[in-house]
Amino acid sequence: ALPVVAVVGRPNVGKSTLVNRFLGRRAAVVQDVPGVTRDRIAYEALWNGKSFTVVDTGGWEPKATGMAASIARQAEYAMKTADVIVLVVDSSVGATETDLAAARVLRRSDRPVILVANKVDDERGESNAAELWKLGLGEPYSVSALHGRGAGDLLDLVLDAM
Ligand code: GDP
Ligand code: MG
């Protein structure tokens, strides 16, 4: 079986946009409305001659009151099933309670966790990304999933972690 990379994070942080970057084509469903992506869609990706499976998570209903609990469950599931976990945070918003809940779970992971500060569309966003050190998951890796900034280096990092 191929190595599995799970992309987790709260709705609207850009998980599906990032997955599309990993795939090099538009396949994952990107929506402005949070919670539209169905739960755990797996895609096969190829980078530097290496194949792997990317799992795009979603399925948190925007109306759900238990968002933090819901994301904690997704993180637990990812820890059991993935070889590498990518936690995506919206750096333009900063760390929310939900992000902190996910981070709390993922800090216990024995699998590598890569913290992605997404929506760093330009240099000015870098200071927002640095604030995510407080999640306790190491260095926040800044990218712009939308424009591709930092995406290639992130993929190198993900493959190195496998
Ligand atoms: P998901 O719910 O986490 O899968 O988020 P989506 O990938 O559906 O993206 C949610 C919204 O954020 C969409 O409007 C995207 O275009 C936007 N978005 C995603 N990545 C970026 C980024 O790097 N920069 C900016 N400015 N917007 C982004
Ligand atoms: Mg999505």
UniProtKB/TrEMBL annotation:
GO molecular function, one term: ribosome binding
Superkingdom of source: Bacteria
Keyword Chloroplast listed: no
Residues covered by the EngA-type G domain: 3-162
Biological process, per Gene Ontology: ribosome biogenesis
UniProt entry keywords in alphabetical sequence: GTP-binding, Nucleotide-binding, Repeat, Ribosome biogenesis
Binding site for GTP 1: 9-16, 56-60, 118-121
Its job: GTPase that plays an essential role in the late steps of ribosome biogenesis.
UniProt similarity note: Belongs to the TRAFAC class TrmE-Era-EngA-EngB-Septin-like GTPase superfamily. EngA (Der) GTPase family.
Record text on subunit structure and interactions: Associates with the 50S ribosomal subunit.
Protein name: GTPase Der
Record organism: Goekera deserti
Residue span relative to the full protein: 12 to 173 of 452
